[in-house]
Automatic annotation (TrEMBL):
Listed name of the protein: ABC transporter related
Organism: Halorubrum lacusprofundi (strain ATCC 49239 / DSM 5036 / JCM 8891 / ACAM 34)
UniProt GO molecular function: ATP binding; ATP hydrolysis activity
Composition skew (Basic and acidic residues), residue ranges: 339-348
Family: Belongs to the ABC transporter superfamily.
Length: 359
């Protein structure tokens, strides 16, 4: 007679869930987070509308999207803090079955007890785990060593947020969810959090980062997903997304106000003539020239083409104040794919004399 033991039941259970005894996802062993067809509604509001997502071990995965896109809901679904439909697996098991020791979570809204010092607070959260790091060293990691003995309630907004980041990493998690970790943190503090994320990722921690700071995501994330209206509309490495959706580099020409239509046409014509001279009659599209609030913009200008653009401005007798060349960024991707206003990251050049000689 066959005797069914508890171990057999566990093994069968694991087999149906598609994981092996070590807790890895047998169907997808490199994946730490897998979501398929994830849906979540709050009454009539559809927060997640069939999200497919996969985060690999050791990667920094950025999640971006407008307010209300569903980012926090997705983080909550993946951390088991809210129920959602669909197939969700974290380390090969449903989110609520994951060993808490392996997960760190910095929620978007986090109100810890205020009448504790930063050290006491981090120690308190560390006490919730089987094993925890020393509070002092964690606070050092987030740039809070000097204020470790200050009451939480008297810390500044940015210092509070850094302390909260410390509570999320006190258990030395394998997978860290950071929901807008640098909100309200000053540039130096942000930089120290960025370095911390880079160090954690370098040490093998998988980081799931949501942020509205596109520069932060572009810098830190190996891959980025853009969520809009509860659906992922693009996913890829930042450089891939920028190449596919970021648009072209452009030259911003500062004048004493918006360029007139006639000026834009004159610049366009000068560029077209220069191009037709160069290409000896072969047809070539001239870069678009458009008026902006501060002057005009010439699209499609690569660094080696700045000299030609300056020549065209001179031919068109445009007396400009300065030039700023900008390349597309993740922010452009975001703005294009969400249909919001275009606002390029500019890299100002040195002041360029209108004769083009002082560049
Ligand atoms: N507890 C809730 N009850 C009702 N509706 C909710 C709840 N939580 C979220 N929503 C709604 O679900 C949608 C997605 O919200 P969510 O907070 O996930 O977006 P988000 O992308 O994180 O936004 P933000 O960038 O503003 O933080 C929104 O329309 C929001 O109003």
């Amino acid at each position: 007679m066959n005797e069914t033991t508890a171990a057999d039941v566990d093994a069968a259970d694991d087999a149906t869930r598609g994981r092996d005894a070590a807790g890895a996802d047998a169907a997808d062993p490199d994946a730490v987070v897998v979501g398929e067809g994830v849906r979540k509604s709050y009454g009539d509001v559809v927060a997640l509308d069939g999200v497919d997502i996969r985060v690999e071990s050791g990667e920094v995965f950025g999640l971006i999207g407008p307010n209300g896109a569903g980012k926090t809901t997705l983080v909550r679904a993946l951390t088991g803090t809210t129920e959602a439909e669909g197939d969700l697996r974290v380390f090969g098991v449903p989110p609520r079955e994951v060993d808490p020791q392996r997960i760190g979570l910095l929620p978007q809204s986090f109100d810890p007890p205020e009448r504790l010092t930063a050290t006491e607070l981090v120690g308190y959260y560390g006490g919730l785990y089987d094993a925890a790091r020393d509070a002092e060293s964690v606070l050092r990691d987030v740039g809070m060593a000097d204020d470790a003995d200050v009451w939480y309630e008297t810390l500044s907004g940015g210092q509070k947020r850094r302390t909260c980041v410390a509570t999320a990493i006190v258990n030395d998690p394998d997978l860290l969810f950071l929901d807008e970790p640098t909100t309200g943190i000053d540039p130096a503090g942000r930089r120290s959090i960025h370095r911390l994320i880079e160090r954690l990722a370098g040490g093998g921690t998988t980081v799931f980062l949501t942020s509205h700071a596109m520069d932060e995501v572009e810098r830190l994330a190996d891959r980025v997903a853009l969520l809009r209206d509860g659906k992922i509309v693009a996913v890829g490495a930042p450089e891939e997304l920028i190449a596919d959706h970021g648009g072209e580099p452009r030259l911003e020409v500062k004048l004493d106000g918006p360029a007139s239509e006639a000026d834009c046409e004159a610049v366009q014509e000068a560029i077209r003539e220069a191009l037709s001279d160069e290409s000896a009659g072969e047809s070539e599209d001239a870069p678009a020239v458009e008026s902006t609030r501060k002057g005009l913009r010439i699209g499609g200008v690569r660094p080696e083409g700045i000299g030609d653009a300056v020549d065209a401005l001179e031919t068109a007798e445009i007396d400009f104040e300065s030039l700023a060349w900008s390349e597309p960024s993740l922010e452009d991707v975001y703005l294009r794919l969400t249909g919001e206003e275009y606002s390029p990251r500019s890299e100002p050049l040195d002041e360029v004399a209108p004769d083009g000689g002082d560049r």
